[in-house]
Design brief:
Elements: H1 3-6, H2 22-55, H3 60-80, H4 92-114, E1 119-120, E2 125-126, H5 127-146, H6 154-176, H7 201-221, H8 227-246, H9 250-269, H10 273-297, H11 301-306, H12 308-313, H13 320-334, E3 344-345, E4 351-352, H14 357-390, H15 395-408, H16 418-436
Antiparallel strand pairs: 1-2, 3-4
Helix pairs in contact: 2-3, 2-5, 2-6, 2-16, 3-5, 4-5, 4-14, 5-16, 6-7, 6-8, 7-8, 7-9, 7-15, 8-10, 9-10, 9-15, 13-14, 14-15, 14-16, 15-16
Amino acid sequence: MSQITAYAEDYPEDLYDSEPSAADRAYRFGGFLLGGVVAYGLYGQISAVLAAAGLGVGSRMVTVPSRALLLCLALAGLFSLLFRPKKFNGSVVLIAYFAFWLAFGCRILLVAATRVDVVVETGRFTLEFIATMAIGGVFIPALSIMVNSCWEWAKFIRNLTFGLAIASGLTTILFYGSRFTNFENRMSAGDTTGSVDTVNSIAIGYLGASLVMMCLYFFVCLTKKSIWVTLLAFAFGGMGVFIMVGSASRGPIICASATAFFLLASQARRLDFKKVTMMLVTGFLGVSGVVMLAQATGSTVIDRLMGIGYAIENESEGAARMDLYEMALAEITERPVFGSSLTLRAEDGTDMYPHNLFLESMLATGFVGTIPLSIVLFFAFRSAWLIMLKRPELGWVSLIFVLFFMYQMFGGAIYSSGQFWISTAAVISCGNWVRAHPEKEEEDVLEEPEEEQD
């Protein structure tokens, strides 16, 4: 059987006409644009920033063009759907999505009308940055993914996403491998002028966690793999562990563990106890390997993990976020319906975000915005679970979403968390596509189908 015939159920029949119409060409183009927004939004920008920082190029020379490129891809994707309106993925979740961002946008406008001194944390983010990032870097790109149902191009989207993630990992090791055990100003990503002097270990840690999740996807969600694919998966999985441990950040390890548990639960629900056993054994070996790697490299990540309880009890570094949570809850209880402010104001005048998605949403939008946000997340988790059960070959979408959702529970601001919003939109869009194609359950999309014998 030829490749085209083998995948005929995945693609509309008219795509194989000898002279495709303009609408068909736009549909194909829309599929490639969906892959571009997903892949570049998740890992393309961080790869560019890491390379620029390693080469000593100012961050504004890279970040602004990167966001502009992502916005152009997103707008082009929305425009392409005009030529194929049947591929427009309209659902009730869009109403909730618009409702949340309407509430959040109103808060930004209200702050802009009443305050002119908004400076977030290190002084790098102004109110203008928050507004432009929320619209061009988060809202529009995520919207373009959510309404696009061109997941017939799932293999292209996956390979492009994984390729950019691996490229980011290689860039990290190339430029910063020697600094993994001795980060300068570990939590900093730049200065007030925007030039990058140091790298953000948290972002690097989640890049490593992403590579680990991709490795698990290959071994758990796909059943037939060539020896070259297996070796490649081992290689970038090991690279992910090295980056994650070298970053010395606790969050990526905690969130990767939670995501792995989600994958384990899905396999248990599928009654695939062989893979459950394999994951448990792999998990034990993985934890042992992380501990030994941390000791060999001198990474402090294990000490920081073991010291979380002690730090909170003694109100040291680990208690900082608990203080933020208490500050946020105090403000939320005063104005729970509409929210009270975009950020938390510290005693020194610095604005900080609460480091928790729901607390930040309640702080900025109250119940008016948090209820729609909860609806969006309900659809996202429902889609993530459905994908893992019905179409495990698409499971990477679910794993990346869960990973970055967990990240939002400990860090990341709503207006700048492009990876979270893009992964959320991707899992919702992919889930809707799976519901529309329930009959196809293909175990592997890496291998070419074998020729049928007459």
